[in-house]
Fold these 2 entries.
Entry 1:
Amino acid sequence: MLMITSLTIGNFRGIPKLKLTNLGQINVVVGRNNAGKSSVIEALAVSIAGVNGENDLLQEVLTKILTWRGWFGKNSITSLFYHDQLVADINFVAGNTLFSFEIRKHGNIMDLLDGEFKLDEDTLRRIGLGKFAVIPITVKAGPLKKTYLVLINAEFPEDGELLTIFSTSDNVYPIEMPLRFLTPFDITSHGFIEKVHSWAFKEKRLKSAFSLIKEGYPEFQNLSPLPENNTSVMYVDVQWAKKAVPYYTMGDGFKTLAAMALTVSSLKNGYLLIDSAEAFHHPKSLRVVAKTLLKGAKENNVQVFLTTHSLELIDILLEEGLKENIDGRIIYMKREGGKVEASIETFEESQELRETLGLDLRG
């Protein structure tokens, strides 16, 4: 994994301008509502996905960004840009390479269509009728460049994909940047646990994931998808039940922990981004999830970025992170007079900042 050491965001979502430097392996983004925490996670997600050069991954991430806070047609597309700005740019440094990511709200689309991209007549007609919003995305890494053309259904699609993405054939950079981008909706949605179970199975990491789950829930024994009604349904084997029980009947704390353990165990040399990491947890569950994240990240060489409003989770991450000698950061974000600002402290330096957070997040 190439550690991301700095991040610069301009005119993306609610952030007019922000620069973060000296990032660590575990980065905890905190602050009041509307401080820009989720925008930081989303900016990283969309740019890492773009660098990977996989249309499917970028499509998944962009769809999540557009719909996670609610899909409301053309306004959702406009919300990718700060106020009336026409260009959003995201830059990050990983290793010794600067990766640049640019999204344009408007541009000479016909030049792109006549040059790099060849679309069928029906698609061109629908663009002309305003059925699709078209956003060009450019990713650069050193002398290399890749261009995406994102067609977004500007209405309220009842069927089919929200996004269609075309791209030039060249890769941005000859490396892989494995990415997992999670929201509370993902973790509790139907089918997600089956997906992350398959990730861990393919990487031969189920044993590692199960050991993490057992640390929080000693009664847990096994997790397995079983055929049922022409599909696969996840079942949980626990000591107190006479037979395996459906995963979806378990409590939200267990479900979130299981999904997190499988995700972090299946991801090696990559990036785990989590929005609202404290969702669905009681205090005991928070500690288990924090330890799972820290241990999994350390074992698998994963860089983590997460947002939280929970002082309890912050305290646990600081306590357990210092025990594990984790290179961690607390990123405290504030919005003042339209500007977004951030202070960054190492876990060792965060005690004084923690007192400020207590007053701010509880205020």
Note: The two ends are 39 Å apart (CA to CA).
Entry 2:
Amino acid sequence: MNRSARWWLLSDLHLGVGDEDPRRPGKVLPDFLRREVLQASGPQQHIVFVGDTFELAGLTEDESLARLDSILARHPEIQDALEGCAARGVQLHFVCGNHDVELARPSVAARLSSLLSPVEPAQVRVHPWFLHVPRVLLAEHGHQHHALHRIPELLRTAVSGTDELDLPPLAAWHARPSNSRLSRAGAVARAFLASERAERRVRELAYGELLEAEALRLELGGAAVRDLARLSRFRTMSVLPRTATRMVLAAAGRSIASEEAPAAAGQVARTLETHGSAVAWYVSGHTHRALEATLEGGATRYVNTGTWCSDVRGRGPDQSDRRTFPYAVVDVGLDGATGGGLQYWRPDAG
């Protein structure tokens, strides 16, 4: 980059049409935006929501538009604060997660822009897959590296949403909570087969054209984007035991714990480096475990931005103190040098 900038990154607010979450992310976020982002001065500022900002998945186009309208109407203070940020020149970025993949629809992305920045819609950008800032950072939600949530034909959501896509295995399980376990297991089995078929389709020419178009948007070489897309694949034989383990733990009210940077983070960093596109920071969310670490074999720092909802799964301070909210800051100097990392914010801080 040729000028200084500050990037604020947070994820997994899971804002819906209701406000039942005891942690009240919809009430906390506006205060954070006003007191931290709008009070900051100096470099160009960017806010990045690294996926699962909204509960917005598996809907038709009309349903997606109506749900987005309802969510922001339910949280007017968020809309006002984000609109204030955009009006002040703060660039707003929304990276799609598995819970808000419908944001990638052109009509839904346009609606979000018109609601948050009616005067200058370009102040709001939606990223179907990931956000890339050359030499500085790459931010993606992370569900593409989690086979149970992986959407093989992810870039098709920017064309037709999820109208023509099948649910990932875990989404198929949760989509039928009132059904019998046998019925839900059948839905998961069908989702397995659908994911296998989708993985074959992404190797065809039509999807390759979508990857080439995405490479231009991301300012990355086509070979680098293709290699990044190949890092994760759905493989039934390796996913089956993980699915069974996940379902057993879920029935017992437990989750799989991990306090280390995922292997995929290192693979992403090495792939970018191989193609001469190394970044200083790789940021993701999805796991609800806030974490910062140096990736083995390189200089890239990894940050997971955790969650602002009540489903905290890490062992950081936000687990013991639910009035503590994780986010990341990446500062870029005039010389291109970067600094920052994982931070925590308290609403009652001075």
Note: The mean pLDDT is 90.
